[in-house]
């Protein structure tokens, strides 16, 4: 655990910024509760994955340079998304030439970037949260968080401290939900097969709430559940951990 | 075989609508995954072995010329011959020439993906030679005139009933009223029918899992023993293989073998691991009189020294497709050529061109499960992305994608403008939503709303509310 008050720059992520700002506020609360000073630099936009995964390295580099600069003043960069944090942490350094100043800056950003929940547990040493939820939830392990950043136990550890909450694991919680960024609109038929299987497994549990740490996956799963008329609700894990349940669940009426 | 990779999207639609295929894929995603996980669990040093296996192949690829010089000399010293085939056509011609020199009328074949890659069966048939597949899965799909749908389970897309129907149609010399209810009865029948074919064959063709430089040996691993009969009963044994199968020593092979079967089927070892070194020697009780190794390049040497070199480490275990949710959704045939799944998404563009195979590296969510299980630690998603980069550089990316991407990137590079655009976008969505919390259809997101509702923004943008200094 850091000895001084860490200055955290929140990387909001483009989806949270537009579709679910409450996740950003939940992240701010969790970070402040953990003893961090939080700011949200205006110089950030998107992590650049849409360009990166379409093979457009020039635009990706340009976006990465902006992000690196925007977060220079901070001790840590924290994102409520394994996918976007993974982009900054694992992929930015690969965008720049070995030995260049930009490479060094990208590596510095990489070293201080974390996904929200793993940051709370692994860096800030958070042991529990002050929140309550009366019911059973299930948890989807989003791919980048799980396989690029090793996020598996951290959200479960904190969820176990939410008063009244029971976690029931679903089958294949580690299998992709079929979102995949632009994949879901480029190959909708395959994406639909994948998300159908995913929400099928969620529905096999007794959970009334499906959680994950990435808004892309959450919107995909919520959109499918609502299309199927399922009563299962969907939220970002940070909302439950922060006790921020005033907003209706994703895609639900207020 | 015909390349249908450019029609990937319509292949996908057909595959998803095929209920029988979907059932078969349901078995793949459970069976293989559990077996590999158990095998890994039972071998504490499994991940260290993966590192060693990767290093062995990397070392070999760095010194391929050196090791091939040694290998070729060893093969010749043991009475065999090495043939170099730059293209698929060269390989077909070399093999046909050897068969014709021996007046071959039938050849038996062990399982070989390289033979699929060079479309060997069609070529032999056109020359009046009958190829007989002896691997059970390959035999079944040969009867059905289908390509393989998986690199180690070629008939994995089929069910028992379909196999029975194919056997009844093909084995007309057997009584109509025989029982083929049990899988074991099907296996017995195939074994009976194939037994005579082994004896009749003039030439036996196998693939190779490995070529060993220090001894000039080729190695196959099988579970049925069909490869042994294929290569030891006929007078001539042809090994049909490719450039990247070489490893320096037998010791190296034993390291790689320890990760191969575990990754593929969850077995500790395949039932048969067969080493072939040269032709029959004086005093040998059996074995072929001639031993030929045909080594195919077909674009592989062009991958050396590029961002795709790591793909040449692949040992064809199939773990990547066994764990791939896209493969599970569509099966192997949808990929439209010989190699399906993640390894196919990287290898196929190298062999037939990105202009033909463009969909393959794009049809991935980059979930990373393939790389996580690859025994050779091949960074498959990264290489799929490299293909997308090649596509983008060559302007093969669809125009609509390029246009919307460049508009978005223009904004993403300009934070002030971007935040303004985000707020405007939210307001526009809210107008469109007319108070609803989600949309059933949206003209700008048809691919999304075809199958799912689109949740609407829950408030103004986070940036906007943060700047305003308060919660929501």
Describe the SSE topology.
The complex is a heterodimer of chains A (254) and B (472).
Chain A: E1 7-10, H1 14-19, H2 21-33, E2 37-39, H3 49-52, H4 57-70, E3 76-79, H5 82-91, H6 101-112, E4 113-115, H7 116-123, E5 132-139, H8 143-149, H9 153-159, E6 163-167, H10 183-186, H11 188-204, E7 209-212, H12 215-227, E8 233-236, H13 237-241
Parallel strand pairs in A: 1-2, 1-3, 3-4, 5-6, 5-7, 7-8
Chain B: H1 8-17, H2 19-41, H3 46-62, H4 64-77, E1 80-85, H5 88-101, E2 106-109, H6 113-117, H7 120-126, E3 130-133, H8 136-143, H9 160-170, H10 183-200, E4 203-206, E5 210-212, E6 217-222, H11 226-232, E7 236-242, E8 246-247, H12 250-264, E9 272-276, E10 290-296, H13 300-303, H14 319-322, H15 325-330, H16 341-352, H17 354-357, H18 359-362, H19 369-373, H20 380-393, H21 399-412, H22 415-433, E11 438-439, H23 446-449, E12 454-455, H24 462-467
Parallel strand pairs in B: 1-10, 2-3, 2-4, 4-7, 5-8, 7-10
Antiparallel strand pairs in B: 5-6, 6-9, 11-12
Description:
The complex is a heterodimer of chains A (254) and B (472). Chain A is α/β, with parallel strands linked by helices and 254 residues long. Chain A folds into two domains: 7-122, no CATH class; 128-241, Rossmann fold (3-Layer(aba) Sandwich). Chain A has 13 helices and eight strands. Chain A has helices at residues 14-19, 21-33, 49-52, 57-70, 82-91, 101-112, 116-123, 143-149, 153-159, 183-186, 188-204, 215-227, 237-241; strands spanning 7-10, 37-39, 76-79, 113-115, 132-139, 163-167, 209-212, 233-236. Chain B is globular, with a radius of gyration of 26 Å. In chain B, α3 crosses α12 (250-264) and α16 packs parallel to α20. In chain B, the strands form three sheets. A six-stranded parallel beta sheet of chain B has the order 1-10-7-4-2-3, sandwiched between helices. A four-stranded mixed beta sheet of chain B has the order 8-5-6-9. Chain B has a two-stranded antiparallel ribbon with strand order 11-12. At the A-B interface, α1, α2, α3, α4 and α8 of A face α1, α15, α19, α20 and α21 of B.
């Amino acid at each position: 655990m850091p000895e001084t008050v860490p200055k955290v720059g929140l990387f909001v992520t483009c989806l949270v910024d537009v579709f679910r700002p409450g996740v950003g506020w939940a992240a701010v609360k969790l970070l402040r509760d953990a003893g961090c000073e939080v700011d949200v630099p205006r110089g950030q936009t998107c992590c650049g994955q849409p360009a990166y995964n379409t093979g457009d390295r020039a635009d990706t580099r340009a976006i990465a340079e902006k992000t690196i600069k925007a977060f220079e003043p901070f001790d840590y960069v924290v994102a409520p998304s394994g996918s976007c944090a993974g982009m900054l942490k694992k992929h930015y350094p690969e965008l720049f030439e070995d030995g260049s100043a930009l490479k060094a800056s990208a590596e510095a950003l990489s070293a201080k970037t974390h996904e929200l929940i793993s940051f709370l547990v692994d860096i800030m040493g958070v042991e529990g949260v002050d929140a309550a939820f009366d019911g059973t939830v299930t948890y989807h392990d989003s791919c980048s968080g799980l396989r690029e950043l090793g996020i598996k136990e951290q959200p479960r550890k904190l969820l176990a401290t939410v008063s009244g909450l029971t976690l029931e694991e679903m089958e294949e919680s580690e299998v992709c939900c079929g979102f995949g960024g632009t994949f879901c609109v480029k190959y909708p038929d395959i994406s639909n097969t994948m998300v159908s299987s995913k929400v099928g497994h969620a529905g096999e549990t007794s959970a009334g709430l499906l959680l994950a740490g990435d808004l892309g996956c959450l919107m995909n799963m919520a959109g499918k559940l609502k299309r199927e008329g399922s009563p299962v609700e969907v939220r970002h894990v940070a909302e439950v951990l922060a006790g921020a349940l005033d907003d209706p669940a994703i895609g639900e009426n207020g | 075989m015909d390349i249908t990779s450019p029609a990937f999207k319509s292949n996908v639609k057909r595959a998803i609508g095929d209920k029988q295929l979907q059932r078969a894929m349901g078995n793949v995603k459970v069976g293989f995954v559990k077996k590999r996980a158990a095998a890994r669990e039972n071998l504490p040093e499994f991940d260290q072995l993966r590192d060693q296996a990767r290093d062995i192949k990397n070392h070999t690829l760095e010194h391929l010329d050196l090791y091939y010089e040694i290998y070729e000399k060893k093969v010749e010293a043991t009475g065999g011959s090495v043939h170099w085939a730059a293209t698929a056509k060269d390989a077909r011609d070399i093999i046909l020439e050897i068969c014709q020199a021996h007046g071959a009328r039938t050849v038996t074949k062990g399982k070989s993906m390289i033979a699929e890659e060079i479309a060997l069966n069609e070529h032999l048939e056109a020359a009046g030679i009958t190829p007989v597949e002896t691997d059970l899965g390959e035999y079944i799909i040969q009867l059905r005139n289908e390509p393989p749908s998986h690199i180690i389970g070629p008939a994995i897309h089929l069910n028992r009933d379909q196999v029975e129907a194919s056997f009844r149609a093909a084995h007309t010399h057997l009584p109509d009223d025989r029982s083929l209810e049990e899988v074991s009865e099907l296996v017995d029948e195939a074994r009976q029918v194939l037994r005579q074919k082994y004896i009749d064959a003039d030439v036996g063709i196998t693939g190779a899992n490995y070529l060993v430089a220090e001894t000039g040996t080729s190695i196959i691993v099988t579970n049925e023993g069909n490869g042994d009969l294929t290569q030891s009963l006929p007078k001539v044994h042809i090994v049909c293989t490719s450039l990247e199968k070489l490893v320096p020593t037998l010791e190296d092979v034993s390291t790689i073998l320890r990760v191969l079967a575990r990754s593929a089927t969850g077995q500790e070892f395949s039932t048969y691991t067969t080493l072939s070194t040269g032709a029959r020697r004086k005093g040998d009780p059996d074995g072929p009189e001639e031993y030929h190794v045909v080594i195919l390049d077909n674009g592989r040497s062009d991958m050396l020294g590029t961002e795709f070199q790591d793909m040449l480490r692949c040992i064809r275990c199939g773990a990547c497709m066994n764990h791939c949710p896209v493969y599970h959704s569509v099966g192997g045939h949808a990929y439209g050529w010989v190699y399906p799944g993640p390894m196919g998404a990287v290898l196929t563009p190298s062999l037939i061109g990105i202009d033909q195979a463009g969909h393959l590296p794009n049809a991935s969510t980059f979930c990373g499960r393939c790389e996580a299980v690859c025994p050779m630690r091949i960074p498959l998603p990264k290489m799929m992305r490299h293909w997308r980069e090649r596509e983008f550089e060559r302007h093969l990316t669809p125009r609509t994608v390029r246009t919307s991407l460049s508009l978005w990137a223009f904004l993403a590079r300009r934070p002030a403008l971007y935040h303004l655009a985000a707020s405007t976008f939210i307001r526009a969505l809210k107008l469109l939503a007319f108070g609803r919390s989600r949309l059933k259809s949206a003209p700008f997101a048809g691919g999304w709303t075809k199958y799912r509702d689109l949740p609407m923004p829950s408030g103004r943008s986070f940036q906007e509310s943060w700047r305003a200094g308060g919660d929501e």
